[in-house]
Amino acid sequence: MKHVLCRAVLPLAAALVATATWATEVTVETHQGETSVPANPAKIAVLDIAALDTLTALGVKVAGVPQPHYVSYLDEVADQATSIGSLFEPDFESLAIMAPDLIVAGGRSSSQTKPLSRIAPTIDMTIWADENSTQVKQALTRLETYGEIFERQEKAADLRKAFEEKLEETKAAVAGKGNALIILTNGPKVSAYGKGSRFGWIHEALELPEAKENVDAQTHGEAVSFEFIAEVNPDYLIVVDRGAAVGAEGASAVETLDNALVAGTSAWKAGNVIYVDPAMIYIAGGGIQAMTGVLDQIRAGFEG
After folding, report:
1. Which of 112, 176, 231, 232 is 20 to 30 Å from the Cα of 152, by its Cα?
2. Within-domain flag for 156
């Protein structure tokens, strides 16, 4: 990343009148390629909860956030900010009135990056594993990038160091304890997630063996039955309750899994069922606080 001095055009609140001004910019890598943004922007609108998580950890004040945001540990931040739409649908009018210096999109709002850029400089900071990078590596790269944009490089380095130490401690805690199956419940429905999936970093980063290899790595996991869980018979079950994450009505993960087939597994009999914070892993996945919190929960589950 490099600093350059250039002439930038920033839209006014109504996004109808533009004025030219000299501003220092930072060139950064985003999900949609390299782009330049204002250095240390003052007014920030954030539409991605993973980004909001990490920016908050860095001490960056955010002016606009989506509502609902679903993550309780970010309630205070959200309460002090302006609502700028939902995770999927930005409120373009509110954003135009706000006239932010920078908009951070990503994940569920990734597709809105181009129209948002008509209001203010917008970066897509989606975190998603691909053939070139793991989810953890991308998340740490985003942390470093935010540190560069907001001139908080030292704080970013401290957060990275703390996370990597936590990762090594958790890796040691799970080593030699057996395999695991990651499942997500959505009311009565159950899906399984393996390496390469949105939750696959748990297997990859912790070197935690999969109870079932080659699970379909699609976005919403592979739909499975209770018979599937019984047949796989994992040593550990790592459970994500989507309904709880989004405040939906219906059966909880505990209720859904309370049946004879699941109860017959080694994981259930040994009490090795780990219910991770669903908002952290499902809504804020990739945020530095969320990833650290999930590691804490997995370590606690494996240490009994």
Report:
1. 112
2. no
Gap between the Cα atoms of 101 and 54, Å rounded:
18
Q: What range defines the domain where residue 45 resides? A: 2-151
Query: What's the pLDDT tens digit per position in 283-297?
Result: 999 999 999 999 999
Mention every residue, 6+ apart, whose C-beta is less than 8 A from residue 208.
174, 179, 180, 202
Do 42 and 175 sit in the same domain of this protein?
A: no
Count other C-beta atoms under 10 Å from residue 182's C-beta.
Answer: 30
Residue with tokens 């912790």: 206
φ/ψ (deg, to 5) at 137: -60, -40
Kindly state the tokens that stand for 76. 């205070």
Q: Are residues 192 and 145 in the same domain?
A: no
Residue matched to tokens 């958790």? 170
Give the CATH number of the domain where residue 177 resides.
3.40.50.1980
Residue pair 148/39 in contact by the 8 Å Cβ criterion? no
Contact 177, 234 (CB under 8 A): no
